[in-house]
Amino acid sequence: MNHINRIIAAAGAVGLSDGMLRAVLPLLAATVTLDPAAVAATTLFFSIPWLIVSIPFGPLVDRFDPVTMMRIINLTRFAGIGLLVGAVLMGDAGLPLLYVGAFVLGSAETLYEICAQVVVPRYVDKEDLPRKNGHLFGVTTSMGGFIGPAVGGLLVGLSAVWAVSASAVGYLAGVFILLSITTTAPTVPAARPRFLPQIREGFRYLVRDRSLLWLALIGGAATVCWYAWTAIFVLAVVDPGMLGLEPAAYGVFLAVLAAGSVTGSLVTGWLRKRISMRTLLVLSLLGWAVWFVAPGITANVYLVGVALFIGGFSGVTWNVLTVTLRQSTVPRELLGRVTAVYRTITRGGRPVGALLGGVVASAIGLQGTFVAVGVVAGLLTIPLAVTIRREAG
């Protein structure tokens, strides 16, 4: 097994644990407290690191070998699981410890994702980046978005403590897989610059590169639409919503979305060899528009399912292409910082979208909100087509 396949295998092990943890974390919080706000705060502490620690992490990834950092991160995650278990054993008194554990694990996930995107071009030829990025996204999507949550849900039937403890296994497996990889020394100047100037350098590069800047801004806007849709979709699925189905149907729809993502990850590399980067990006956004608008214009379960499959396919295609473009064009010594700034912009759309989804739906209803976010996603293709001219490779 070559180095990049080992990186993908490690991503699969880690993705499995991430998926289990996301499914179990709210249930774990509920064993400590029944206060809804306190339970929701656990998810907040897990997700907030993307907004507050992502950018400072960028220079670290550029300074040090990312594979070595990924090993250390997985060991940190392994220890973080211990904090969560300790919090449960302490009962109500363990709530602060639970928040600390969630923040540590969320920070580790943030840094790991940046490292994973930086390390790929060190072991993959430029022309093969779309295919290998597709494999990486396919593994992480299937493990983290489908298999991991399913396994976590099954283990919760035994005990929330057992379920969260089991998630530590994937992190430890990731460490051992990464230990088999020969590391590469980072390219850094002999006189190492100070931290803040390095962060500013990452900002300046992204601002000057108009294609990447527009991709970040458009991606952030699309993410707002995505999370606005996600925040209310369950209300459309479950009776008395428009689709009028049982709660289990919501999980089926999410599985269809994941299936579309995995399919997209397998064929994006093939499509990239035959279709221009800009055309594929525009088609991806149109796919998102179809996905978002479907529940607003039809109550046909099968049509909504097809739209979700298209959305999952389009989403991973967008991710593979934009990551490949950064890897192909940003200098290696800046990739960590630029990726951190870029991802902060796109990930910042998540809490904004979740908030707007509820507010807009209260004002104009569920169907109107689905149509609105779909139209906005479709309109984003206009600045995309006008501004994104440079090709990768």
TrEMBL record:
Subcellular location, record wording: Cell membrane
Membrane topology, from the record: Multi-pass membrane protein
Transmembrane segments: 39-60, 72-91, 97-124, 136-162, 168-191, 212-236, 248-267, 279-297, 303-325, 345-364
Gene3D superfamilies to which the protein is assigned, alphabetical: MFS general substrate transporter like domains
Domain named Major facilitator superfamily (MFS) profile: residues: 1-392
One Gene Ontology CC term in the entry: plasma membrane
Organism: Arthrobacter pigmenti
Species lineage: Bacteria, Bacillati, Actinomycetota, Actinomycetes, Micrococcales
Keywords: Cell membrane, Membrane, Transmembrane, Transmembrane helix, Transport
Protein name as catalogued: MFS family permease
Any one GO MF annotation of this record: transmembrane transporter activity
Pfam families: MFS_3
